[in-house]
Amino acid sequence: MSAKSKPRKSWQEKLADSKGLPKVEEITDKMSKRWGTDTVVIPAPKEVDEIMRKVPKGKLITINEIRAMLAQKHGATIGCPITTGIFTWVAAHAAAEAAAEGKQDISPGCTLVNRGARHLCLNTQSFQQILHL
After folding, report:
1. 133: burial class by Cβ within 10 Å (0-12, 13-18, 19+)?
2. Residue 31 has pLDDT above 80, yes or no
3. Per the omega criterion (within 30 degrees of 0), is the bond before 43 cis?
4. Is 102 left (phi over 0), alpha (psi -120 to 50) or beta?
5. What's the rounded Cα separation, in Å, for the pair 89 and 82?
6. What's the CA gap between 49 and 89, in Å, rounded?
7. Which residues touch 60 (CB under 8 Å, ≥6 apart)?
8. Based on the number of CB atoms within 10 Å of its own CB, is 100 exposed (0-12), middle (13-18) or buried (19 or more)?
9. What is the pLDDT, as a whole number, of residue 53?
10. Of 4, 15, 66, 83, which residue is 20 to 30 A from 77 by alpha carbon distance?
11. Angle at 60 between CA 56 and CA 62, to 5 degrees
């Protein structure tokens, strides 16, 4: 007997699913070795997408800048580096998915590099070409 598996969520569905986020939590002892003390904001995917949408075409933003904006918005010390990175990936894939469906109001796709390196937010057509390489 085989169990029926759930159909996979689309990238757009993943972007819309906040799963109780955002939330601000205390930085644990384990995390404090790398990120310091005080609080961390775990953003909602849509929040990351909103920031990405505000980046003008051809302009640059870093993951750390996105994290700082999220931390400031929520009164936290830092923005979570892991979920912020994951949600930029989700937002970029959701944008490519929406563009493939012919939607116009979409977030630009971004190539992502961490640790203060810059990553260029590309227009969707360029992003789709990169995504399909």
Report:
1. exposed
2. yes
3. no
4. left
5. 11
6. 10
7. 118, 119, 120, 121
8. exposed
9. 85
10. 15
11. 125
